[in-house]
Specification:
The structure holds 2 protein chains of 2 kinds.
Chain A (H helix, E strand, L loop, with lengths): L2 H12 L6 H23 L6 H23 L10 H30 L5 H9 L1
Chain B lengths: L2 H10 L13 H26 L9 H4 L2 H26 L3 H31 L8 H34 L3 H33 L1
The chains are: A mainly alpha, B mainly alpha.
Chain lengths: ~130, ~200
């Protein structure tokens, strides 16, 4: 059995796409650009508005994650009859709920339990 | 369960076990593991998001982080990702020597990444900004350290796989291992995008 044949069989069995030279290069160049721009932006001091800089940097990260998913991890809806995509979507949903929920709850805990409110709180609990 | 029910089920669903080729579901199983790992990192990111501003009157990101070092580190991991891609392509062509060569290059970049990260950790601990200094630093060391540990184990796996390929060649079992390790390696690069964005870049704005 030649190595090529082994690979072809492997390819059919697993429905895997190992990508091509050009797709890896394309993904790499996109990643370099998507990394360099936010680094350059922050190193240069960012925009006037800090929030705008933060949103831009996060935007680049999201796009770069998608680039990695497509070009390096070869994600598509057909892999493993769609189960790979489905498990990924499920994970993303859980991650979003987990991150947003934790930050939201803890932010409110912090703002509502600032030291200046201790007085009211002690009264509340004490009575 | 009654026979009638079983019969009904048999008409609607296939009850006989399928024959799957050896390792056919390995990559999906490994992907599910990576997704659970992703949840673990999400928890660590959430911890960092909550504790990231608790400096305990200690140093903050702007006092500690060196973006140029992080940029070099990011470049190392990105380069190791593409060289692993080339190893996969060499494997696809059945080129054992090429596969081993690209794996060695990947290992080199992975070790460079680890060396730079260890240097950064050593520097931080040396100037008194260790994990016990503040909530921010505890969360930082946990998050970045867990990623570093993953890269460490990925490197050990890489060495193991190189030995296996040298011994038995590019047999289907080794190809399957390569597919899993490549997913693991690219996954770590994806996590690093989150780390350098949320920890380093947002901390320095």
């Amino acid at each position: 059995m030649s190595a090529d044949h082994t690979h072809a069989a492997h390819h059919d069995d697993h429905g895997h796409d190992h990508g091509s030279y050009s797709s890896y290069i394309k993904g790499f160049l996109l990643s370099v650009i998507l990394t360099a721009i936010p680094f350059g932006l922050v190193m240069a001091g960012g925009f006037e508005s800090r929030a705008l800089t933060a949103v831009t940097v996060i935007g680049f990260a999201v796009v770069q994650i998608l680039v990695h998913m497509v070009y390096f991890l070869h994600m598509n809806g057909k892999q493993e009859e769609g189960w790979t995509m489905l498990s990924t979507i499920f994970t993303v949903v859980v991650v979003v709920i987990l991150l947003a929920g934790s930050l939201w709850v803890m932010y409110h805990m912090n703002t509502n339990m600032m030291p200046q409110m201790d007085h009211e709180l002690t009264q509340g609990f004490g009575s | 369960m009654s026979h009638a029910t079983t019969d009904t089920m048999a008409r609607h669903w296939e009850l006989e076990p399928h024959h799957h080729p050896d390792g056919a579901s390995t990559s999906l199983g490994f992907w599910v593991y990576l997704m659970s790992d992703c949840l673990m990192f999400a928890v660590l990111f959430a911890v960092y998001g909550v504790l990231g501003t608790s400096f305990a009157a200690g140093p903050g990101p702007k006092d500690l982080f060196d973006l140029e070092l992080v940029a070099v580190n990011t470049a190392m991991l990105l380069l190791s990702s593409i060289t692993f891609g080339f190893a996969m392509l060499a494997m696809g062509k059945g080129d054992q020597r090429g596969t081993l060569r690209w794996l060695a290059v990947t290992l080199f970049f992975g070790l460079c990444f680890l060396a730079i990260e260890l240097y950064e950790f050593h520097h931080l601990i040396h100037i008194g900004a260790g994990p016990q200094r503040s909530g921010f630093l505890s969360a930082f060391f946990t998050l970045v350290g867990t990623h570093g540990l993953h890269v460490t184990f990925g490197s050990i796996w890489l060495v193991t796989l190189m030995v296996q390929i040298t011994r038995t060649g590019l047999i289907p079992a080794n190809q399957r291992r390569m597919v899993c390790l490549s997913m693991f390696w690219h996954f770590l690069d994806v996590i690093w995008i989150g780390v350098f964005t949320f920890v380093y870049l947002l901390g320095m704005i």
